[in-house]
Amino acid sequence: MIDLPAAAPADVIVAEARAADVGCFPRPDQYLDLVRAWHDDGFELCVDVCAVDYLEHPDRELPAGVTPTRFEVVTNLLSMARRQRVRIRVQAGDEQPVVDSLFSVYPGSEAMEREAFDLFGVVFTGHPDLTRILMPEDWEGHPLRKDYSVGRVPVQFKEAPGPR
Amino acid sequence: MSDPTVRVAERPDLLTAETSEGAQELLARAITPPAELGREVGSVVHLEGHGFDPSDVDVERRDDETMILNMGPSHPSTHGVLRIMIELDGEFILRAKPVIGYLHTGMEKTGEQLSFVQGGVNVTRMDYLSPVINELNYAMAIEKLLDLEVPERAVWIRMMMSELNRIASHLVWMATNGMDVGSTTMMIFGFRERELILAFFEKTAGLRMNLNYVRPGGVAADLPDGWEDDVTVICDTIEERTYEYDQLLTGQPIFRERMVGVAPITAEEALALSVTGPLLRSTGVAWDLRRTMPYLAYDEVDFDVIVGTYGDNFDRYAVRLNEIRESVRIVRQCVERMPAGDYRSQDPKVTPPPRARIGESMEALIHHFKLFTEGFHVPAGEVYSAVESPRGELGCYLVSDGGAKPYRMHVRGPSFVNLQAIPLLMRGGSMSDAITVISTVDPIMGEVDR
């Protein structure tokens, strides 16, 4: 367990996560400030940005004071000097998840945020190029959402109707 | 115009509409936002005092002086279905943008439909050059959620197989990189030596590739009789042959022309772009998860972390070549120090009863059946676990809701992230350097698109 950097927003909720990582639960409006504070505190690598759709678990267990929403954006930061990981879980919203893009702090988050947008429909404000990355440009829906069923597109080997 | 589905050369609008990726593609400068333009020219690095100013980018260049060239998705030197759109001024690259997704098969979605027992078959196909390391990453994430202790022998078997796999992966890299710079000899050599390792994998796990050998709780089978001799022969052969590659390539003038000083990247740039693996180490950052955040028993074996200096193509080559030798060192230590004991956990929750018991015990049969149909339940929670794959940090963010299937399985593919360095590496280089850039970044499209 390590302390939040001094520059971090004051009332961010911190909880110990598994495997010796630190978990932070900022509100969406604190997210970018918190990440910037960690960055300035020596966390030079943004390892991973991904989203989770908790459609089936609206009342999941979270630290006190965190209001669960359907979508959660999970960011993993790494400090090489301290050999420490920090996990930031931000509750992004229910209907239309929106969080700030980390592009201005970590340019390397660009592709990962595009992936989260493509597969979950999370909008990252301030992202330079928020387009689909894995799915075709005219694809409808966001496949990793829990209400996007598997088998929506029939599998046939001949004369199959197009996916779009 | 009557039938809009007819693909004819007279209707180029239809042809492009069918294959267009819209805004995912490299667009004309006039309609590209400044921040994105900056990214495509590789100038996104926010160094202290060197903040990126969009007005620095030369947007006044007229589009008719340059040419946007489409490379891929089916191109022999893109190592899979990677498509790179390149804006050229004559022979030189102004902008580049990778367009990916041509191999996207929804493996993360599939992972949510498969139980924890079955999931290994899915993840092993992501990075098809290092299947063992993919499985290891997935199994370690599950074990962290289960709080499961893995027997010591299983740990060492996993480590030995991972390192053999790393050698195999780097050998394919040596081979394809050799091919890209025109050395068909290296191509043959690399695949020839890799075959030794794949044959050993077949002997151990039954398959050459996509082994599904590492399972939650241990490995699928014990090492075959006489494995020490096989592995020693592999080590001796490959170690000796690395000096042949060295002789063949390192001093070779044509090879050096294509490699030395081409496409450098600094440590600050690599870190800002979240680049890991040999690409990062070639810039001089000694960051190797095996050493810096040890897993398995890497803190008990003796090996060096190879770093480069200039971060150019040649350093990336040198790092990989020497990593083969270091991996051989680790494998030799595994052979020497392989502990006796169980090759998988004896916890009946994750491990099926032995085959002999199934024949004589009804309970064992039911247990076996339940384990492979229903699977085992993993306590609710989330975990991020990472290992060092041949391409960088391979991470797995696993969310379980207490069921037998992962609620969410996200794999952080190192190739996917490393691809972001391509615009920066290609900028200003010639078209022929672009080929070596793709090669030395070493993207595995199965992992990029997942």
Notes on the structure:
The complex is a heterodimer of chains A (164) and B (450). Chain A has 164 residues and is an alpha/beta fold. Chain A has one domain (1-164): NADH:ubiquinone oxidoreductase Nqo5 subunit (Beta Polymerase, domain 2). In chain A, 15% of the residues lie in helices and 26% in strands. Chain A is built from two helices and seven strands. Chain A has helices at 28-40, 110-120; strands at 13-16, 22-25, 45-53, 71-79, 84-93, 98-100, 123-125. A five-stranded mixed beta sheet of chain A has the order 1-2-5-4-3. Chain A has a two-stranded parallel ribbon with strand order 6-7. In chain A, a hairpin with a 4-residue loop joins β4 (71-79) and β5. The longest helix of chain A is centred in the first third of the chain and has 13 residues, at 28-40. Chain A starts with 12 loop residues before the first strand and ends in a 39-residue tail after the last strand. The model of chain A has no long low-confidence stretch (mean pLDDT 82). Chain B is mainly alpha-helical and 450 residues long. Chain B folds into two domains: 26-99, no CATH class; 107-412, Cytochrome-c3 Hydrogenase, chain B (Orthogonal Bundle), CATH 1.10.645.10. In chain B, 46% of the residues lie in helices and 10% in strands. Chain B is built from 19 helices and eight strands. In chain B, the strands form three sheets. In chain B, strands 1-2-3 form a three-stranded antiparallel beta sheet. A three-stranded antiparallel beta sheet of chain B has the order 6-7-8. Chain B has a two-stranded antiparallel ribbon with strand order 4-5. In chain B, α6 (152-180) runs antiparallel to α7 (184-205), α7 (184-205) packs antiparallel against α8 and α8 packs antiparallel against α13. The two termini of chain B are 39 Å apart. Chains A and B meet through β3 and α2 of A and α2, α3, β6, β7 and β8 of B.
What's the SSE blueprint?
The complex is a heterodimer of chains A (164) and B (450).
Chain A: E1 13-16, E2 22-25, H1 28-40, E3 45-53, E4 71-79, E5 84-93, E6 98-100, H2 110-120, E7 123-125
Parallel strand pairs in A: 2-5, 6-7
Antiparallel strand pairs in A: 1-2, 3-4, 4-5
Chain B: H1 12-19, H2 34-40, E1 67-71, E2 83-89, E3 92-99, H3 107-113, H4 119-123, H5 131-146, H6 152-180, H7 184-205, E4 214-215, E5 218-219, H8 227-250, H9 253-259, H10 267-272, H11 278-281, H12 289-292, H13 313-337, H14 355-360, H15 362-373, E6 381-389, E7 392-400, E8 408-412, H16 414-418, H17 422-426, H18 431-441, H19 445-449
Helix pairs in contact in B: 5-6, 6-7, 6-13, 6-18, 7-8, 8-13
